[in-house]
Amino acid sequence: MMTSMKRLLLAAALSLLPFAAAGADPDPRDWSGVLREARGQTVYWNAWAGDPRVNDYIAWAGEQVAGRYGVQVVHVKLTDTAEAVSRILAERSGGRIEDGSVDLIWINGENFASMKRNGLLFGPWAEDLPNFPLTAPDDNPAVREDFTIPVEGYEAPWGKAQLVFYHDSAFTVAPPRTMPELLAWARANPGRFTYPLPPNFLGSTFLKQTLLGLAEDQKPLYRPVDPAAFDTVTAPLWAFLDALHPLLWREGRAFPASGPELRRLMGDGEISLAVSFSPSEASAAILNGQLPATVRTSVLDGGTIGNISFVAIPFNAAHKAGAIVLANFLLSPEAQARKQDPAVWGAATVLVLDRLPAADRALFDRLALGPATLPPEALGTVLPEPHPSWMEELERAWSARYTSR
Amino acid sequence: MLQLATIATAAIVAGPIAAGLLGVAMPAFGIIPALGSSSLSLDAWQRLLEQPGLLRSALIALASGLVTTAISLGIVFLFLASSAGTRLLTWVRRLVAPLLAVPHAAAAVGMAFLIAPSGLIARALSPWATGWLRPPDILIVHDPWGLAMMAGLVVKEVPFLLLMSLTMLPALEPARRIAIARSLGYRPVTAWLKVVAPGLYPLVRLPVYAVVAYASSTVDVALILGPTNPPTLAVSVLRWFSDPDLSMRSMASAGALAQLTVTMVALALWRVGEALLARGGAAWMASSDRGIAERPMAVVGPAGIALAGGALASALVGLVIASLSWTWRFPNLLPDTLSSATWSRAGPVLLETLATTAMIAGPATALALAAALAILESAAASSRPRHDLTPLFYLPLLVPQVPFLFGLVVGAEAVRFRPGYLPVLLGHFVFVLPYVLLSLSEAYRRFDDRWLMLGRTLGASAGRTFWAIRLPILLGPCLAAAAVGLAVSVGQYLPTLLLGAGRLETVTTMAVALTSGGDRRVVGAWALAQALLPVLGFALAVLLPRAVWRNRRALRNTS
Amino acid sequence: MDHVLRLDRVLIALDGVPLVEVDAEVGPGEVLTVMGPSGSGKSTLLAYVAGFLDPAFRASGRISLDGEELTGRPAERRRIGLLFQDAMLFPHLSVAGNLTFGMPRSLDHRLERARAALSDVGLGGYEDRDPATLSGGQKARVALLRLLLSEPRAVLLDEPFSKLDAALRAEVRELVFGRLREAGLPTLLVTHDEADVPAAHATIVHLGPNGAVGPRRPRTA
Hints:
By secondary structure, chain A is of the alpha/beta class. Chain A has helices spanning about 5-25, 30-40, 50-70, 80-95, 110-115, 180-190, 200-215, 225-245, 260-265, 280-285, 320-330, 335-340, 360-365, 390-400; strands at about 40-50, 70-80, 105, 145, 150, 155-160, 165-170, 275, 295-300, 305-310, 380-385. In chain A, helix 7 crosses helix 14 and helix 12 (about 335-340) runs parallel beside helix 13.
């Protein structure tokens, strides 16, 4: 039984709560609070925009989130994720610690490591998302590690990638299954294979994959680089590349800038063998008229590198609640299934299918694989990504060795 | 009042450039508040010098600046020399404007598709002439010496320098001069080169310098056609700024300053070249050589124009066809299947993007025109201005974009300047103004002041003579200058991207983002979209005066 | 209406070297002719009187019109008309537009006046014509009308007949001086052709290389 005085005080105290809550960061554990705060916000999602299908998918996600949660999404189109990282860094330089221009960023690997190390990320928040358990994190530790750097809830998983090879079966029937076979294949088909120029993501991953395939002991790659041992560990890689480069497209004097550029070369018939990070990229490209229907995907014996791509929220994002809501939607079965559909985009899901209720699972089961995609069983072992310091060192060494003077 | 406007404009133009250069100089010498370092150091420079291929990147940039300009200028002058007074000149002049409307990146994409081993030329010749069923492994696009890049630049710079020359030419009364020379026994091309060229060059010096600066520091064209391993210096700097290793940004800043130095060196070398040529030219002129090399020289000009114009036009046609294709395998000259899917998919986004582009380009050009008129009117009003601010207005032509734009972003944040529409508008204004000023200043110089004097004696105040006499008579030149300004604004990439924090999507930012996706159909469609607004602008600049002055013969044709 | 233009010990110098020195009074309908070789400063004198002197020159002395001091007054308020060698009709205005341009603000029936003036010189019906379509003689007549319709109180002529062919010259000359005399306007004429000087009411000043030699005796009939 409260006196009227106490009631007044309590009412006053309670009325201050929304103001107090508005000042604090949104907490996904209070999901209804997050939804409430998010309604009416506009989220600036910075994501690569080189493919209209990706852009269309992002636009679709935006419409869904607007309709269901009242959150507007603006796709800030990037040519390179680093543009957004630059922007956030500039904002911190200038002292803008809140109301930043980037709310959500599509990111992984080196960019993530760099942002986390420099304290540019908001979090932790990702493990408290309602949809997070669908990624079966305990059985699937890859979701908690980004290039061996612990995620610790600072980014939410979005998509799965795995390095695959694809070839035009009209020109070559037996793709290589090991690195030595690749060299032999290149000898037999000079000028018909290449990889993107490091430090492009895909190009650097090809270097890592090659090293994993040639190294006697893979363990050093999962530890930070030991400068003293670097040369010995990488020696087989350089020997291999020294032999390979003269057999490459343009004799290794020029390299395509990116994965999509590489795909275009195959579409034009300039090369017969290429690499990709997406097992269904070839199918999606065939359906989109970019590759001939004779293209097929393959993997290497012994497994290929795979990783997860994430979405993260910068420390100074202006619309954190909206970003959290969007991230959770992106992790939903509906959004993931649509993303995996090769007619829409063709990017593999990060959800573990047997954790899903039957109705959601059906969304995935009825997806056509696509003409060139390997069924999941045929994808082989997924090798985890080496430590990010290896990526930097390999890029540097490659550059020093193979840049024309 | 006019003086005030002039000074204000100078501040608006020079201020950001100074701020930008400071913003990139500080990190280069070790001062980066965001990462906690605040003491001078040369670490960044040391790391820069350790970068593999640095010297080569710089040399390619330098060579590109000089060679591109030399070739373009050579073609333009030789063409003018051999076509003076002929119908060919009028005909080509009409064709120049649409070619100018195509932004550099779009032209580069088209050229790449034209000259690549899997491109149009190869397809036209295969397999009947070459026997190729698959594209040959020849390094053309992305060749290590940057020749493809220079070609892509030349096809754009030739129309630009041609337009600038044609604007400045009438003041020299070339017909009269040539007539005199020919009556002394000189053959036509030699005559032009001896009596018109020395007078024309100083008038087009500024546009020529702009070409040197651009060719040595371009990013878009270098990305599409230039060498990759190592790339040109400007591309390397862009990559370093984009590196996820944040500590590389100080090295990137040092690289940006290095790029600035390369451009300055290119300009300095060009000036040295000018002096040498002047000395050699004086000797040639005194030699009474009346035309020994006449025949070959007479051919180079028109051939060069035909080649450059033909290449660019074919490139554009290729883009149109690509945008309407679905599958198009080598060696087919025409697509296997056609489809309007690319356009219909791009439709709504395209319209929205065009609207945004117009919303930036329109006001920026209008402001630049107003500022240019204020500056020129102010200079005309006082015959001996107290300070000559002219060089300041042309700074944006000569300072490479990469160094100062990155510095500007950092600086803008520090003064709590929010990225958004206004900074982008301002940025575009800064880049459009020099071109508008260049285009309009000749018209101002040639304006017969006696009209103004008559106006004054008839009782009109200085203000009324401007609005009622000067402006109407200069309507054509104003529209032409505005068309150039509009084209420049539409083609801007880095200013829109950096000053708008990626939130303002113009046709050019979209086109560049989509270029990274490698889909020729999409890139083709957007490259054409980039050309749309400028073409409209140029069409308007020609048609509007014709309509307004239908009954005024003296003013009907702007050029 | 009688107007008097007075040039009171006007001295114009360039870099300390005296160029022109005139001390004269020009009465209504009178013509002061300034003659001299090119570069002797004749046009500079006109520029000074009109109000457009280039700051490179130093001028001293006074100009007055109808007793009002003009030195220091902006050109548009001097009410002094100007005729050049070229007719210089505004290309963006019609013939009538040219004529009404200089008419005093307060005037009404501007178009009618323009029409009447055109008929008067045999150019009736030319109101809406494009000035570029007129012949040399027609342009000269329109230029004169434009000047007169602005109701000046004095007139400056800068070699106004030298671009006309011989046949037209005499005709136009007669028309111009006739109208100026009729209107009682003092006139300052600059020319290098003695034949341009009107027969009566004319004083000639010769400019030598070292400045004015001074007025000669007026020519008498």
